[in-house]
Amino acid sequence: MEKVGIVGYYQVKPDLDAMMSPPDMIFTAVRGALDSAGLKRKDLTTVIGCTNDYYDGKTISNAYKVDAGGAYMKDESKVEFDGAHAALYGVFRILSGNHKLAMIYGYSMPSCFPYETARILELDPTFDRTISLLNSYTAGGMQMRAYMKKFNVSIEDIAKVAVNSIKNAAKNPSALPEAQLSNISVGDVLESEILSSPLRKLMYPILCDGTAAIILAPEKQSLKITDNPVWITGVGSCQDTYYLGERNLSISTSMEIAANKAYKIAGINDPKKEIDVAEIFGHTACEDLILAEAAGLCEQGNGTSLLDGGSALNPSGGTMSGLTPCACGLTRIIEATKQLQGEAEGIQISGAKKAITTGQVGFCAQNNIIYVLEGGGN
Amino acid sequence: MYVKTGIVAPEFNFWVGLVMDKFYDGLENKKFIGNKCSKCGKVFLPPRKICGDCFAKAEEFLDLPETGVVKNFTLANYNVNERKARKLKEPINVGLVQIDGADTAMLTKILNINPDEIKEGMRVKVVWADKIKGHPKDIKGFEPIGGE
C-alpha cells in the first residue's frame, strides 16, 4: 500500500458539558487541524465527517454540518460511527489518486443525548430491544465474565488495567479532567459501583463531549506540508455477527483478522516486538485487553503482561481518558500520532516508532478496525 | 405524536418479518421455534433468515424443547430505558441460554436462584409469563432444573 500521511490534527478538549453548539465544536476542530498544518480550507479536496443520526436527533445528520466542517461546495461524505472508519474512507479517497487533501472529523455531544439509550437503538428490534436486557453494561459484564473464565484472569488483574489507563489519563493534558484520578488504586476500582457483574464503574469510560479532526494526504503532498508526518502504512477491518449468543466473547476474532490484514500490508512480522505504542478503543478495561491480545501484542489471555513491558498499552489513558462516541477512533489516531512525532506531552513513550490504533462499532466490539502508524518523517 | 415524561416519540409499528413471525407464533403456543441453515445445519434460536457463515438461507423451521444450558450471565444493576440508564431497585440476573438442540444462545432472565449460585453450563427450563401474548416477553425467564 502506498503510504498515506497524517499531516495535521486537532482535538477539542473533552468536556462533560461543553456548552458549545455542534457547529462550534466541529468548526474549532477543523479550523484547528488546518492551522496545525498551515493549510487553508481551499486546500481541502474532500471532507469526511463521522456523526450519528440518533445522537444528533435527526436523519442525514451531516447535512447541517457542511459549513462548520469546511465542506461547503466540496466533495463530502459521512460515516456513522466510528471516526476510525471515517479515516478509512479518507484513506481510500487519497489512495484513489483523486484527492490531495482529506479532512476527517468525528464529533458527538453525549451531554445532549442519553448514550446508553441511544445504544439500545442498535439492538435487534424484534427480540433484544423488546426484552430490554441487553445494554452496554450487561454486554460488558458478560464479555468480562467470559474472558476471566476462559483465561483464568482475576478481577484484580482487570482492575490493574483500569488503574493503568486512569493513571495515564491523569498525565494526559488532552484527557477529560473528571477522568484524571492520579491516586486511584486497584481497591478503588474494585470497590466502585457494580454496573453489571463483574463490571465495575471504574472499568467503564466516562462519556464526554468532544471533536477530533485529522488531515490526510498522499506521500508526496505530505512531505510538502510537513517534515514530520506520521504514515498510515497498514489498515484492516473486519465485521463479526451481531448476535452475542453466537459469538465467543472471550476473544475477538474480528480484531485478529483485521490485525493480520493490517500487519501484512504494513510488513509487520512480529507485532509483539515491532509495535511500541497501542492506542486501543475498548468499551471497558477488559475489552482493551481482549482487543490488544487479538491484535497480537501478547498471547491470548495474557494481556495484563503488557502492564509490565512490551507495547505501551494506551499511554493516553485510552477510552478511560474520556470517551466521545464518533470521535474516539480518531482520538486514538491523534494520540498515537503525537507519540510518533515525539510530541506527547507528559506521556511520551521514549523512542516510539511504530504504533497501532483501533476503532470499533457495535456491542462487544462487533466490528473492528486497526491502523498501523509509523513515524520518522521522510 | 404523543408526549410522555419529557420525551417526544413518533408512534409507528412494523411487522417483524416472516421468520420472526413464526417465532412469535410459537410463543403464542408456549413453544420455541428455531430454524436451520440449509447448508451447515446450524440451528438458530431466535430464528434468522440467513446463516452468515454459509451465506445460505435457513429455511427449515423446527420445534425446540423448553430446556437448555446457561452459557453466560451477569447480575445487572441497571436497566436502560428510553430515557436513560436507571439503577434497579432489585438487580436482575441476565443470561445467555442455549436451548437443547440449538447452536446459538438467546438473551433472557435467570430466575428463582441466588446470583452467586448461577454457573455456566447449568441446566435450566423456561418459565412462561402468566399471560401469553405472542411476544418475546412471554418468556419470563429460565429457572434451574432441580437436582442440577
Task: Describe it.
- The complex is a heterodimer of chains A (378) and B (148).
- Chain A has 13 helices and twelve strands.
- Chain A has 378 residues and is α/β, with parallel strands linked by helices.
- Chain A has a domain at 4-115 and 207-225: Thiolase/Chalcone synthase (Peroxisomal Thiolase, Chain A, domain 1, 3-Layer(aba) Sandwich).
- In chain A, the strands form two sheets. Chain A has a ten-stranded mixed sheet with strand order 3-2-4-7-1-8-12-11-9-10. A two-stranded antiparallel sheet of chain A has the order 5-6.
- In chain A, helix 3 crosses helix 13 (328-341) and helix 7 (155-171) crosses helix 12.
- With 148 residues, chain B is mainly β.
- Chain B has one domain (2-144).
- Helices cover 7% and strands 45% of the residues of chain B.
- In chain B, a hairpin with a 6-residue loop joins strand 3 and strand 4 (43-44).
- The longest helix of chain B is centred in the N-terminal third of the chain and has 11 residues, at 18-28.
- The N and C termini of chain B lie far apart (51 Å).
- The mean pLDDT of chain B is 92.
- Chain A binds chain B through residues 114, 116-117, 119-120, 125-128, 130-138, 141-142, 145-146, 149, 193-199, 241, 243-246, 249, and chain B through 14, 16-17, 20, 23, 46, 48, 52, 71-85, 92, 94, 96, 98, 103-109, 115, 120, 135-137, 139.
Number of domains of chain B: 1
Structural class of chain A: alpha/beta
Query: Would you list the SSEs of chain A in sequence order as H and E?
Result: EHEHEHEHHHHHEEEHEHHEHEHEE
Give a count of the beta strands of chain A, DSSP E runs of length 2 or more: 12
In CATH, the homologous superfamily of the domain at 4-115 and 207-225 in chain A goes by the name: Thiolase/Chalcone synthase
CATH class of the domain at 4-115 and 207-225 in chain A: Alpha Beta
Strand order of the largest sheet of chain B: 10-9-8-11-12
Overall geometry of chain A comes to globular
Structural class of chain B: mainly beta
Q: In whole angstroms, how far apart are the ends of chain B?
A: 51 Å
Could you give the count of β-strands of chain B? 12
Distance between the first and last residues' Cα of chain A: 16 Å
Low-confidence stretches of chain A: none
